[in-house]
Amino acid sequence: MKSNQELNRRDFLIKSALAGAGTLIGTSVLAHAETSQIISLADHRKIGSLNVSLGLGCMGMAGTYNLPMPKAEMAKVFAKAVDSGVTFFDTAEVYGPFLSEEIVGEGLAPFKGKINIATKFGFDLSSGQRGGRNSKPDTIRKAVEGSLKRLKIETIDLCYLHRLDPNSPIEDVAGTVKDLIKQGKIRNFGLSEVSPATIRKAHAIQPVAALQTEYSLIERVAENQLLDTCQELGIAFVPWGPTCRGMLTGRFNENSTFESFDRRGSVAYFTPAALKANMEVVRLVQTWAKRKGVTPVQFSLAWLLAQKPFIVPIPGTTNSNHLTENIGAWNVKFAAKELADFRTELSKIKVEGVRSPESALVDQ
After folding, report:
1. Would you kindly state where each structural domain of the chain is located, as residue ranges?
2. What is 4-361's CATH superfamily?
3. pLDDT digits (tens, 9 = 90+) for 65-75
4. What is the mean predicted confidence (pLDDT) over 242-267?
5. Got the DSSP string for 39-86?
């Protein structure tokens, strides 16, 4: 059974759709017309050599929180995204494995030259299933060749090390990527879920364009030195899980349970005890979102965008209406006092099931 918050969110989207060409709601603009360019070039942010919009995470298209999605349906989502000004799409070879890249490659093929695709390497997928971490040079080169083929492109715009392999020195990983950049197979190098020390080691060999780490109003471990390191070195920060795996949408409540295929069932901040505590943040977001005339999702994404000018969230969705809602966050603005007041209220809530601040200093 859907929660009241979920029904309210769906009701909002239906009313927005019925508005026709678009609806102005407080400081957020939602455009229903399929050809509307909601995100303008002037609003893009830098990731290395790229100028990108708010991103679209494509992991869920291959499953994880839901069953895998039909390629034809996802092609429609991609078309809507591009028509709405989205230019940045995030995937990885391990999603599926391989299926997410295949969906992205086929769905975005008509838009080659207009968009940027990020993908990731770092696992042993030689059996066709996810194995342990492996970032040896030969594995990286094979992974990149496979990704290029599945994505139907000649160059990967942003290629991340997905997770650090303890048996592969980061200097060797960065050196291998540097060679692949020289060969024209990669444009920009990224890291994911690594410590400030590892970022610096890699950056000394090959400039790092982006760090991808979980960051949301509930999971804020990145605020311990990771954001500061990115700012110092000129590295973009790409938050995954920007709505805390959907928690901030209002879809869940203290009594939520999960299907066997839904990874949230094994995530610490979705346990029954943690949900009870973390709903306090959800309710706070709902209060502030209502005050600003936007949805909780838009408030949550806009809050991330307001933290630093080099932050580029990649909310994932397989639903065109949710995509429109996400894009509306780009138009939500905060006064400095609003951010300070909200932070004061947020800091009074003790969240459960999140990482310790000290864990930001350790490779994950």
Report:
1. 4-361
2. NADP-dependent oxidoreductase domain (3.20.20.100)
3. 899 999 999 99
4. 94
5. S-GGG-EEETTEEE-SEEE-GGGGSSSSPPPPHHHHHHHHHHHHHTT-
